[in-house]
Design goal:
alpha+beta, five-stranded antiparallel sheet, three-stranded antiparallel sheet, 8 strands, about 40% helix, rod-shaped
């Protein structure tokens, strides 16, 4: 069977249209994947900050007694201390930032512990605490902050 020049040209044209269509589809898929990746990264960063601050707020509110929540230094950085009494012993829950992680350490008062002993809670670049004159606390994780009003604060 012989093919004519017109059949070859129309076959080549159809193949070229198919290739162009396939390239456009592939380009749209790549652009969509890149946009999706950017959205997921932006959402993840914000959710980790909210998780961090929610954890801190919940820890304070669940263990909140007048005068038991304060800011002090632990491992060279500001840390949140929640003091508790069990029986005749005094204990601290310490929330601090160490090696890119928000960590929690439950320790008996009077003992020095390495920040490496703490339990890692969530990853974050920064964690900061500020205690206001009236006893209220501002906790900052990344670019997000929360205002915490412990019992006994003004």
């Amino acid at each position: 069977m012989k093919t004519t020049r017109g059949e070859r040209v129309s076959g080549a044209a159809a193949l070229m249209v198919f290739c162009i269509f396939a390239m456009l589809v592939f380009s749209v898929i790549l652009l969509g994947a890149g946009a999706y990746k950017n959205i997921v990264e932006a959402t993840r960063g914000g959710s980790e900050e909210r998780l961090c601050l929610s954890y801190i707020w919940t820890t304070v509110k669940n263990n909140d007694e007048a005068g038991s929540v304060y800011i002090d230094t632990f491992a060279g950085s500001p840390a949140l201390f929640v003091s508790e009494t069990y029986g005749e012993g005094a204990y601290y829950t310490i929330i601090y930032h160490h090696n890119g992680w928000v960590c929690e350490l439950f320790a008996e008062a009077g003992f020095d512990f390495s920040p490496d002993y703490g339990e890692r809670i969530t990853k974050t670049q920064t964690l900061g605490f500020e205690q206001l004159e009236d006893g209220n606390i501002i906790a900052t994780c990344g670019e997000t902050s929360v205002f915490i009003s412990p019992r006994g604060s003004g």
